[in-house]
Amino acid sequence: MPANVEPARAFRCGRFTFALTRPLVMGILNVTPDSFADGGRYVERERALAHAMQMRDDGADLIDIGGESSRPGASPVTESEELDRVLPIVEALAAAGFPLAVDTRKPAVMRAAAAGGAVMINDIGALTAPGAIEVCAESGVGVCLMHMQREPPTMQAAPDYRDVVAEVRAFLEARAEACLAAGIARECIAIDPGFGFGKTLAHNLELLRSLGSLAATGFPVVAGLSRKSSLGAITGRGVDERMPASVAAALAAVARGAAIVRVHDVRETVDALRVWQAVEG
Ligand code: 9MG
Fold first, then answer.
1. Of the residues 39, 54, 143, 203, which has the fewest C-beta atoms closer than 10 A?
2. What is the per-residue pLDDT across 13-37, written as a single tens digit (0 to 9) for each?
3. Which ligand 1 atom is at minimum distance from the Cα of 196?
4. Is 262 noted as a catalytic residue in this protein?
5. Does the pTM of the predicted model rise above 0.85?
6. Is 228 a catalytic residue?
7. Are 168 and 221 in contact (CB under 8 A)?
8. Which residue's CA is the nearest one to ligand 1's atom 5?
9. Comparing C-alpha atoms, which of 272, 250, 251, 258 is closest to residue 28?
């Protein structure tokens, strides 16, 4: 870490401030028919709410609700479709006091989600849509800025970098600067290398090994490796059999400086992190 950069000590999301004295676990709740790991499972409201409650009981610090799949080949959704999927779940869970993130690229969805009680916006587009930064600045939410090369339909066709770590870091620093300039507080910004978003297995592994270089920016680093194809490529397992690999990847990310892990398997990840912390002290 450069001498003049303090490590992130807290991450502020609206009325919640998370001390970064231990890794945080963000549970994934996709209310989509077509997400790659859990598509269709939580479209129905009662099942979605029950799954969120379970993740909270299992130790999730935040729940990330997504209404549009970013899987290559997934159908795009309109603003009103995305709102119909996400907003009732946000309102119900916010009323129960859950810290909620909403995974969206659309400023209108961001605005409605924040008004409905979401305290964090997780944007795979790093708030590049016109108006997105302003909405987040006005509502005081925490933001996760993710790197992606190209767009989901074509991003895995031929990912290409001269220096993947330097390029991802430069992009995320530039997006964080844009957020700061628009009035988003430093302690509300997290960054994410975007594992699997326009990256080969080799790129993902290089980024994972070098996560410390992103943590050295002073922003908390989010790592999302859960059930991803890279883990399938390493283990030969199908998407429903990648829990152990996902837990191992979460531990590897935390050991290299990730502050937040975005996961499907909350209970298993929380247990693994508790053991890791007990050893690390
Ligand atoms: C929505 N989504 C899917 N994968 C992701 C990842 O790796 N990070 C973040 N922040 N969001 C993701």
1. 54
2. 999 999 999 999 999 999 987 666 6
3. 7
4. yes
5. yes
6. yes
7. no
8. 224
9. 250
